[in-house]
Amino acid sequence: MPVFTRLSHHQDTSPEVEPEAGAEASAPEPKKGLRARLATLRDRHPTAMHTIRWTITILCAALVLGALMLPNRMNALQPDRFTRIPVEAILGAAVALALPRRPRLIVAAVSGVALGAMTIVNLLDMGFLEYLGRGFNLILDWELLPDAQAYIQDSMGKAVAVGASVGAVVLVVVLLTVMALAMVRLSNLLSRNKQVATRATLIATVAWVLCSALSLQISGVPIAADRTAAALSVQVRRVQDTLRDEAEFQKVAKVDAFGNTPPSQLVPDLRGKDMVFTFIESYGRSAIEDPIMAPGVDKTLDVSTKALAKAGFHAKSGWLTSATYGGSSWLGHSTTMSGLWIDNQQRYRTVMASDHLSLTKAFQKTGDWDTVGIMPGVQKAWPEQQYYGLESVRNAFQLGYKGPKFSWSTMPDQYALEAYQKLEHSKKRDKPLMSEIILTSSHQPWAPIPKMVDWDKLGDGSVFNAIQKAGKKASDVITNPTKSREEYGKSVQYSVTALTQWMERYGDENTVLVFLGDHQPIARVSGDHASRDVPISIVAKDPKVLDKIADWNWSDGLRPAHNAPVWKMSAFRDKFLTAYGSTPHPKKS
């Protein structure tokens, strides 16, 4: 093999020599693999690689610290929440410094995944608190996520819903993976610099203890933080409470003040009356008292009260405190009708599978009423029909509607009521009719909103095509709190107008209308500290019907006074049954 000598330029007079065959094989093998490439880059660009390494480390530290201090409320996402000393970081550093390499890496990776999972729970808490006024329940609420996806699809379109679903899955995978890698990287950094890391951990420990002992704060926020530990404790208690509540509620549901009441002794004072129980979606106290929504809604209620009075009808109104907030309307419906406090999915499933008497089923049980449900929001099988004692139910596909959807709402309330009139209420019967109607036009995102049209021109609903196209887009309203409040108020005005006009047009001396909201709208509309109260009204032409509830002290008309009585929604069934002559015959557990 020839020998090559490096010469200076002026000494290089030797002829070019071609390498012998096989020389390449004798040369060192080029480095392969990611680690080798990184080593090469470090050799070639030491400053740039040093900067990149520390940038990644700082980002990892920021990610972990941010996750440890992340609040679970939207309105708490303020800078001062992240200028704290998390005790979990101190404990994590101490563990990393104490463990040998292999256990340290395993603990770091598992801790990272756990912290990522806790971050996901905090984000879910944010969403649930914003939309439902409560935190995420690890046991009960997973089944609500498909409903959220369906809501996004109905409101924003299929593409947005698919994108959101894919984005959520990607976010979960990325967050768990990146958080684990970040924890491993930080544990390696501590291990490589044990002396400095140990001193820093001791200093942080002393600082945390002093700040905690002296209750030091920044803008009212304690500097010594244990946010993640506290959040985990809350989730553990929530799971324990849920499991305990499940067992206790099964016993409660078996106790019923009217469970053994003979049919002849149920609502005898309403014999011969066509009963209409109607829920107006998201019709809450804020609609009547909020300075943005109230002027329009109050005017509508007052105008409708006068129009009903002109037609011979009168009303009394009060307040009920709903078992739900912002959504999960079925919890409000079941609480009103069962007389039980149904504030979660487990309670709902329990009562739906029970024989606890619902208010609507009381009418069916007498044998003196035909019973029907009008459910324009139902688009799949609805086994709850049996619990509510509804002999027939017309869902979104059985009302003959051929017009456009209005975001989540499958059809305008006015059309649903006219279809109810033609298909059920106007039929000649041997018995009066008891109906449960769920109106949906005031469901979020409150865009586009239907408008009232001539009742005689409703047809198959095609008349709403132009109204739907001219309406506001959901995407323009849903992200703007002021617009959301304004459009929400308009949607309530529309629903109330449609229902009261139906009553004026088709009601008679034997028609009794009970209508109420199922819950308050979301916090973006009702406010962060809004009550859970909803209005409820009873409308009738026969004065004897309202005389029966004179001792309730409800307000005259459709607008309940601010100081009108407030009951828990679960109290309504028994008060109603008692007022109209039902005799209690308790069924005990």
Automatic annotation (TrEMBL):
SUPFAM superfamilies: Alkaline phosphatase-like (SSF53649). Residues 1-32 are annotated as: Disordered. InterPro entries: Alkaline_phosphatase_core_sf. Keywords: Membrane, Transmembrane, Transmembrane helix. The chain crosses the membrane at residues 51-70, 82-99, 106-124, 159-184, 196-216. This is CDP-alcohol phosphatidyltransferase. It comes from Streptomyces pseudovenezuelae. The lineage of its organism: Bacteria, Bacillati, Actinomycetota, Actinomycetes, Kitasatosporales.
